[in-house]
Amino acid sequence: MAKAPTPRVIFVRHGQTEWSKSGQYTSITDLELTPFGVVQMRNTGKHLIGASPFQIVKPQNLKLVLTSPRTRAKQTVQLLLEGVDDLTRSKIPIEEENNLREWEYGDYEGLLTSQILDLRKQRGHTDDWNIWGYGCEGGEDYKQVTERVDKAIERIREVHAQAFKNNVACDVIVVAHGHILRCFAARWVDRPININPNLCWMLEE
């Protein structure tokens, strides 16, 4: 029997929303995709998933889709899978994973970075703030985010391990948000997230 391909995880950020367009920090605010965001994700699905040699994920190899519970992420999943036939699609498990929700911004929800810096200055903070090291007032810090991202990764590794044991192809797609996916990528390769996980740096190293 031929050896199955190495199990993979592919992560996709949700499409554009009004707040991602404006640069506002969006966590618990449950926005839908903009019309452009719908087009973005529909086109992403056409290029990502299908039987063509030029498409990265073959539908029959897709063993799990994990999505953030936010509407913008769940919409993205449906758009990504639009081109998959109904029978194949019915066999693909789609699970909401609360641990993949966006970093909770607390008092910074809906603000621009410049507004966050102004707010912190008004509150007497003199540090050079970034989310990775300092977290969010009224929201999460990097330790809390690390803990829940690691739980999501553990779920995926279990699926991969079973596929490896059974010698079957196994792709897992993760649909979530900008900050949480950077954390996910860092933790996947066992990097800390409190030093600004730059994806290019991680890949080059």
UniProtKB/TrEMBL annotation:
> Where does the signal peptide begin and end?
none
Residues engaged in binding substrate: R72, E102, W103, E104, Y105
The active site annotation covers: H14, E102
| GO biological process, alphabetically ordered | ribose phosphate biosynthetic process
Show the GO MF annotations.
sedoheptulose-bisphosphatase activity
Fetch the InterPro entries from UniProt: His_Pase_superF_clade-1, His_PPase_superfam, PGM_Phosphatase
Task: Quote the Pfam families the UniProt record gives.
Answer: His_Phos_1
Protein's name in the database: CIC11C00000003179
Name the source organism. Answer: Sungouiella intermedia
